[in-house]
Amino acid sequence: MHIAELNHVTKRYDKQVAVDRVSFSVRAGSIFGLLGPNGAGKTSTIRMLTSITLPDEGTIALFGEPIRAEHQNRTGYMPEERGLYRKLGVRVQLEYLGKLKGMTSDAARKAVDYWLDRFELRSWEKKKTNELSKGMQQKLQFITTVLHDPELLILDEPLSGLDPINAELINQTISELKAQGKTIILSTHRMEQVEQVCDDIVLVNKGRVVLEGSLREIKRRSGKNMIALGFEGNAEFLRTLSDIRIVEEHPNSALIEVAAGADLRSMISQINSQVELVKFERVEPPLKELFLEAVGQSFATPTVTL
């Protein structure tokens, strides 16, 4: 079953086409990555999914039926720009927003208790939003999104402003919500987050879909022959090797793409003659590499759909 389906959706602002005949579907119970550079049309797409705006052309379905206002209580939306009341106390605000989503006072209070403890904000429950740090406000914004136990979560840059510990907390929570059967649409610039949690992705650029499908299948079909190297010594020698392209370079490690048909035994021998090789492992191409390649393609080339 598909929780969300977009069919040939177009959105214009005056003469600017923000979303251009976009089609994709989101499987129930999956984590779906909505990716693209700034200005690609991601936010415009999210605003249509959340009924903030309407498409000029095409159709959108949620929960197996045409999108309608009643779907908002079954959806949790976390915008990139915070939508919090700055002068309201944390608990008062959360309980109020929960009741706006149809929760009873008792259910809202219990849910607020759970999430404040879960995110270690209990000691701040009487503070006003503008007294919280940027990271705490981001956690508060996440709580407002999940408080009413929605079936569909739409998260726009949920890790913005978070330190590594709290970013991992959010990622763990997203994975737990998926395990509970929730469907999550995740829009982010953090490729490592997509690699960690997403099942499927769609990549948009200039309002159009350029890559879509299962993350694992997209990587498999890329045809890229990636090798992760670990060594003791200076990596400068890699620039002298034929049949390779350096994708990433770090002290004592590198990621290289090897040309098809290259002699790997000879390559290992050459590397060992320059440094002490401790790792030579085939790996999947990083999503960042596929992202940059797809975004760099001309739209004269066909859309890739997997």
Helix content: 25-40%
**Main β-sheet description:** 7 strands, mixed
pLDDT < 50 stretches: 298-306
Kindly report how far apart the N and C termini lie.
18 Å
Count of separate DSSP helical elements: 9
Based on Cα principal axes, name the global outline: globular
Mean pLDDT: 90
What proportion strand?
Answer: 25-35%
Cα gyration radius (Å): 23 Å
Number of strands: 15
N-to-C SSE string, H for helix and E for strand: EEEHEEEHHHEHEHEEHEEEHEHE
Give the helix/strand class: alpha/beta
As laid out across the biggest beta sheet, the strand order is 6-7-8-3-9-10-15
Features:
7-stranded mixed β-sheet; 4-stranded antiparallel β-sheet; 9 helices
Summarize the structure.
By secondary structure, this protein is α/β, with parallel strands linked by helices. It contains nine helices and 15 strands.
Describe the structure.
The protein is 31% helix and 31% strand. The strands form 3 sheets. Strands 6-7-8-3-9-10-15 form a 7-stranded mixed β-sheet, sandwiched between helices. The protein has a 4-stranded antiparallel β-sheet with strand order 2-1-4-5, with helices on one face. A hairpin with a 2-residue loop joins strand 4 and strand 5. It contains 9 helices and 15 strands. The protein has 306 residues and is an alpha/beta fold. Helix 2 packs across helix 3. It starts with a strand and ends with a strand. The radius of gyration is 23 Å and the shape is globular.
